[in-house]
Amino acid sequence: MNVCNRNKYKPFFIWFIIYSIPFHFIMSNRPPLHVFFNNFWTGFIEKTDSMDYTFFMTLLEKVFESSIHISSSPDDATVLVESIFGEHSYLYHKKWNSTFLFTGETHYCNHTHMSEFDCVLGFEEPRDNCYVQCPLYLLYLQSNPLILEQIRDGCAPHTPPPPSHATAVITNSVHGHERMRFTQRLEEKMPVFYGGRYKNNIGGPISGDFNSPAIIDFYKRGKFAITMENSSGPYYITEKLVNGLRAGVIPVYWGTDRVSEFFNPRRFFQLKSSATDEDISELIEKMCNLTDEEYLSIIREPIMLRSMEDVITEVSESVKKIVIPPPGPAQDF
């Protein structure tokens, strides 16, 4: 074969070599990426809190297609991941390859330097090209694989069904106006057990964190667990609904209507985000009139509509479009 004929097959040969290499081989042969986390809560890095860094490690590995190492010093890292839960920022400490801000709450827009980060992970609708929707429950389930397995496989129904009581774990009355409004009305129709500091009527607050077995056992006292959010945002979905679901009872949810994109709406009751007094009355009557057969039918429903892998992959693809530069134009060989 002459030189011209060999060159004729060269582009195909290179394409074949590149696309025949397995992804895990490419990833394992790339240098690790060093990431510095800042302003996160106690136990995040130590993995002693119910929400730790596991989700971010998974996300960054997907985005950069490289293994991730956590750096204890910003000077040794090339990627910065910060949250809004702190005062001191390392955003201007050095020139970073990529910077991320995790909002953690619905009031992310209060952060002074939000627009200066390459990518913002939060719960609102995108307001600019650097924003990516990231429901909070992803952190919770990634940090607690046993809980993820539990709700993915479904929870065995209690036999016989528990009484028509409701449970709620509320810390204070400062947040969650809709939740207070609903529970006050509900108390007129059925027993409501309060396991938090607010209105506690069980002899003292439940011990442990919000992923503890104690809170799940408490929710099993009745058919209904009040798992309403403190506030509403388009993708603000916390661990509250998850805990009601894993207790094997019917959660009563208030928050974003987008929750049904991820969780089966036939598996829980939902109060409308802009509920009227009539909406509240209607839902309470539905709870009071629910038969044991209807209850069992509801809690046998599957829980998740989308797998964790699917949702995290979608988030990672959105992040990639922001922080990974597009490939340059193809060149002739």
Outline of this structure?
This protein folds into two domains: 3-141 and 310-323, Rossmann fold; 155-302, 3-Layer(aba) Sandwich (Rossmann fold), CATH 3.40.50.11660. With 333 residues, the protein is of the alpha/beta class. It contains twelve helices and eleven strands.
Whole-number mean pLDDT: 87
- Side by side, the strands of the main sheet go 2-1-3-4-5-6
What is the CA-CA span between the terminal residues? 18 Å
CATH architecture descriptor of the largest domain: 3-Layer(aba) Sandwich
Note poorly predicted spans: 1-21
Number of helices: 12
Give me the Rg, rounded.
Answer: 24 Å
The tally of beta strands, per DSSP, is 11
CATH third-tier fold name of the largest domain:
Rossmann fold
How helical, in percent, are the residues? 25-40%
Estimated share of beta-strand residues: 5-15%
